[in-house]
Fold this sequence. Notes:
Layout (H helix, E strand, L loop, with lengths): L1 H19 L5 H17 L6 H16 L4 H36 L3 H7 L5 H10 L4 H30 L2
Amino acid sequence: xxxxxxxxxxxxxxxxxxxxxxxxxxxxxxxxxxxxxxxxxxxxxxxxxxxxxxxxxxxxxxxxxxxxxxxxxxxxxxxxxxxxxxxxxxxxxxxxxxxxxxxxxxxxxxxxxxxxxxxxxxxxxxxxxxxxxxxxxxxxxxxxxxxxxxxxxxxxxxxxxxxxx
Length: 165
């Protein structure tokens, strides 16, 4: 029981630090780093499997809160772009997953979940249910998240400046 309490205390402290430091997705990343460091150094981190199910239910509920009647009605205008986006991303991510699998030696499930366009927490939770190497999926998504947040605004600004000339 003590391991569980320490793990949750560190998760809350790390999450709070991530928010205070204004890290992108700070609550998630801060908690993940705090617990990860603790577990790497002591091997005493523990969260019962029943909490994984509870976290999946919670994340599902949070995502569900984003849907409104207005969201649904706007889909008729977004059908073609959504179709292009979904098909393009799926094909690209599957191809990239196979390439990573072949080049890195990661198992195929881990490679495919690592290249999926979903959020870090959601993808890590779902990948765990499919037997992927969840820490590797989370780490690769963290690298993607930090890279996108750091680089994409500058790239978009550059493209916008080019098209406005």
